[in-house]
Amino acid sequence: MTIRVAIAGARGRMGSTAAFAITEAPDMEFVGALDYKYDGWYMNSGSLTQQQSGVRVYTSIAELAQQVRPDVLLDLTDPEAVFPNAQKAIALGIRPVIGTSGLTLEEIDQLKCRSEQKGLSCIVAPNFSIGAVLMMKFATQAAHYLGDVEIIEMHHDRKLDAPSGTATKTADMISEVRTPHLQGHPDEQVNAYGARGADVQGMKIHSVRLPGLLAHQQVLLGGEGELLTIRHDSFDRKSFMPGVLLSIRESMRQRQFINGLEQLI
Ligand SMILES: NC(=O)C1=CN([C@@H]2O[C@H](COP(=O)(O)OP(=O)(O)OC[C@H]3O[C@@H](n4cnc5c(N)ncnc54)[C@H](OP(=O)(O)O)[C@@H]3O)[C@@H](O)[C@H]2O)C=CC1
Ligand SMILES: O=C(O)C1=N[C@H](C(=O)O)C[C@H](O)C1
């Protein structure tokens, strides 16, 4: 069976790389692009055209659903668009596979509820790279023994959200095993706002944005007289594609809500 995939954000850096990977996959078809503009245009080999060749762009998910009947909606948009897209997709019986970062905990809870009420899978994957998922798992294992943790995430300077979805997910996974406690000096004095980073249950997350970077993260775990650093680097968006294809395939097998690629590998 060929899996019919629509992409929200297909013009973007990740969306265009995913469109190519899906087109190349023998068991998938890229059937439609969901956007907020360019209604009725077409996407052909990564470019937009008004000529009727390639995959049509829709600004209405209801129209997209009716015209091209996608099985899956891959979302690679932005923090504002992702939640309404996923809610509407579930209501229309389309399985969301969400790579977009920036969903709040409340939004994740609501999507879980809706997908389970409907018996339709919904996959949220803050990072599709297998190496990044292993980095999060290894850091969680290490935090059993070394509970003082700081995360440094580094991304390209076009990224809209901070901290990254990966850093937030890493902190969530570590907080499952780490006894909550304050890190650093209790009387610490911060002289420049933000110098100590964001606080997630006592752990600090530092977000770096620079041209030249793509997606990188270090988890630093400190103990008496020692430091363990677990680092992952994505140098190319191709690093995310095996996880994108795996998630799309799994979304057809599952009927529940899945938060994190670590649940699938
Ligand atoms: N899970 C993972 O492994 C990965 C996740 N990401 C996440 O994916 C998302 C996209 O990243 P990236 O490709 O770099 O960003 P881009 O800005 O390159 O792409 C986002 C695209 O979505 C479009 N868009 C915005 N709003 C809507 C909407 N309502 N409907 C449809 N399309 C919309 C944007 O259009 P316009 O430019 O006109 O605003 C843009 O073309 C981010 O949240 C990022 O964090 C990125 C890499 C890996
Ligand atoms: O915006 C990006 O580029 C990335 N976003 C995701 C995140 O927020 O963690 C995944 C990866 O880090 C690339």
TrEMBL record:
Catalytic activity from the UniProt record: (S)-2,3,4,5-tetrahydrodipicolinate + NADP(+) + H2O = (2S,4S)-4-hydroxy-2,3,4,5-tetrahydrodipicolinate + NADPH + H(+); (S)-2,3,4,5-tetrahydrodipicolinate + NAD(+) + H2O = (2S,4S)-4-hydroxy-2,3,4,5-tetrahydrodipicolinate + NADH + H(+)
Taxonomic classification: Bacteria, Bacillati, Bacillota, Bacilli, Bacillales
Transmembrane regions listed in the UniProt entry: none
Predominant location: cytoplasm
SUBUNIT field: Homotetramer.
GO MF annotations, alphabetized: 4-hydroxy-tetrahydrodipicolinate reductase
Binding site for NAD(+): 9-14, 39, 99-101, 125-128
Annotated organism of origin: Sporosarcina aquimarina
E.C. designation(s): 1.17.1.8
Dihydrodipicolinate reductase C-terminal domain span: 131-263
Domain Dihydrodipicolinate reductase N-terminal, chain residue ranges per copy: 3-128
Keyword Oxidoreductase appears in the UniProt entry: yes
Record-given protein name: 4-hydroxy-tetrahydrodipicolinate reductase
Protein location: Cytoplasm
Binding, (S)-2,3,4,5-tetrahydrodipicolinate: 156, 165-166
InterPro entries referenced in this protein's UniProt entry, alphabetically: DapB_C (IPR022663), DapB_N (IPR000846), DapB_N_CS (IPR022664), DHDPR_bac (IPR023940), NAD(P)-bd_dom_sf (IPR036291)
One Pfam assignment: DapB_N
